[in-house]
Amino acid sequence: MNGRVLRNEPSDAFWMPFTANRAFHKAPRLLARAQDMHYWTPEGRAILDGAAGLWCVNAGHARPRIVAAIAAQAGELDYAPPFQIGHPDAFLFADELVRISPPGLDHVFFSNSGSEAVETALKMALAYHRARGEAGRFRLIGRERGYHGVNFGGVSVGGMVNNRKAFGTLLGGVDHLRHTHDPARNAFSRGLPAHGAEFAEDLTRLIQLHDASTIAAVIVEPVAGSTGVLLPPQGYLERLRAICDAHGILLIFDEVITGFGRLGAPFAADLFGVVPDLMTTAKGITNGAVPMGATFASRAIYQALMTGPEDQIELFHGYTYSAHPLAVAAGRATLATYQDDGLLTRAGDLAPLWADTLHGLRDCPHVIDIRTIGLVGGIELASRPGEPGARGLEAFKRAFAAGLLIRVTGDIIALSPPLIITDDQIAELAAILRDILTTLD
Ligand SMILES: Cc1ncc(COP(=O)(O)O)c(C=O)c1O
Fold this sequence. Notes:
globular, single chain, seven-stranded mixed sheet, alpha/beta
């Protein structure tokens, strides 16, 4: 078998993540190359990237500055152990991140993925309360339909049933808020839906059930992406913040997809004017080029743990690849690219055109809701009777065949193109979607 055939006939030695492996092998979809707004298949077919890879390639693919930084770093310092020793650029990068972070989130803990950033935040929350003499605050509150990665903590506070049901008892001491999706009142919302601030009162219910003295933290995605683009109702996050404050509960924002300009501000916390105590990020932090996660912590949390004998480790947590030199190099070049190209706010400028264009698909068959914010869009399709997810999956396959990468969750199409998308490319994306939706069973 020559190399080219091998490249196009993938072997099943690779057990693919979140994939129907057997079906995939009957009709593989492969990507071989990428530049700016496009992928190319091994056969050379161009695919417009409507998903920024997987919500991560915010500056577009293979940006020269990022490519050069990674290449140079690999030859300079390939790896440095991060425990009790450091490399200078990691400190510089943390400083640069803190300069653009929401007010008060002054400390950065590096990991390798969104899932790890979440585990880090949950552990910091528990350790913080313990350090302050409130070890009885062990309970973690997530939300129905939340997605916080795939590790045990994140799956436990997450609320997507398929991600949970096969994996036993998960973490103890976890409860969930109701989700905020309310299409009956909020369908076809542009920006934040008008109704549903009162869903935050569900936290009051859980406080009455468990007592605030047992609750360490609440974790939510400011805008839930993986579960199908669920937007926070106006006033909801403010209310959640106020209830947490009143009861000494930490608020964690999972900004793994909303971070780094996706909504038109550096972080969702900036856009919504609600600052959490801990913030998890990943994906866009390196433009997807090298795996990295980062958990931002407030000064108060950091300081509460900087106690005890000075030569003792304060937080027994970290990864072999925390602040990996290649990730740091990619991250610094990414941040410089975002800043030079105005990408941390560009989604805000494009949002009206984006919203007009996507909401223009409202008349297409099967469409029961469209939700937009920044450069994020969710198009919810009616499910085929008895076959939830089948219509969405077919839309995904048809889009790929037609030259467009989208993401689907069940029967919801989630769109999040690189933040460099042009007006014409927004129109092209919508035209391909219209073709697909009008011919889909
Ligand atoms: C909100 C949120 N948290 C966590 C994660 C997990 O990130 P990763 O896949 O890098 O572990 C994701 C991934 O989509 C996410 O959207």
